[in-house]
Amino acid sequence: NLLLGCELTASTKSYTFQVDEEDNSDHILALSVVCLTDGAKDECNVVEVVGRNHENQEIAVPVANLKLSCQPLLSLDNFKLQPPVTFRLAAGSGPVHLAGWHRIMHREDVSFEEDDDLSEEDEEDLPPIMPAKK
After folding, report:
1. pLDDT by residue (tens digit) across 86-127?
2. Does the global pTM surpass 0.85?
3. What is the rounded (10 degree) CA torsion for 86, 90, 93, 96?
4. Which of 24, 65, 98, 124 is 20–30 Å from 110 (CA)?
C-alpha cells in the first residue's frame, strides 16, 4: 500500500489521481480522512469526487461538507475508488487535506482455461458424499 495525500485550496481547487492503465495491474484508491487544516475559515467546504460512469460520462459526487465550527474532519472509512479520479473543492476556500492509500494488485498471467481443467480434475478425486447414518 502506498500512502496518498493532497490538499485542496482556493488556488488549487482540484487534484487528479491517475495510473498507468497499461501496466496490467488493478488499482484501488481508498480515501480515509478529509479534514480542514490551518488557515481554514468558518465556511462550508464541499469536496466532490469526479469520475466517469459506465457510459464514460463525467459524474461528480459530493463526499464531504466540512465547516470549522461543526465538522472540521470526516472519516470516510477507506472509501474505495477506481482511478482515474479527481478530487475537487466545489465550495469554500479550504485548505482541505485528503488522506488515504493506493493499492496495486498485479494480475496473474494465467489463462482461465487452464484453471477450469485443474478444478475439474480436483472434483473427480473427491470421495462421493455418503448419506448420513440415522
Report:
1. 999 999 999 999 999 998 887 764 444 444 444 444 445 555
2. no
3. -40
4. 124
Distance between CA atoms of residues 79 and 2, nearest Å = 15
Contact present, 100 and 32 (Cβ < 8 Å): yes
Tens digits of residue pLDDT in 44-101? 999 999 988 888 888 999 999 999 999 999 999 999 988 889 999 999 999 999 999 9
Query: What is the Cα–Cα distance from 128 to 60, expressed in whole angstroms?
Result: 54
Secondary structure (3-state) at 125: helix
Q: How far apart are CA 7 and CA 87, in angstroms?
A: 10
Q: What residues contact residue 13 under an 8 Å CB cut-off, 6+ apart?
A: 88, 89
Cα distance between the two ends of the chain? 53
- Report how far residue 130's alpha carbon sits from residue 134's, in angstroms, rounded to the nearest whole number: 12
Among residues 93, 77, 3, 1, the alpha carbon closest in space to that of 34 is found at: 77
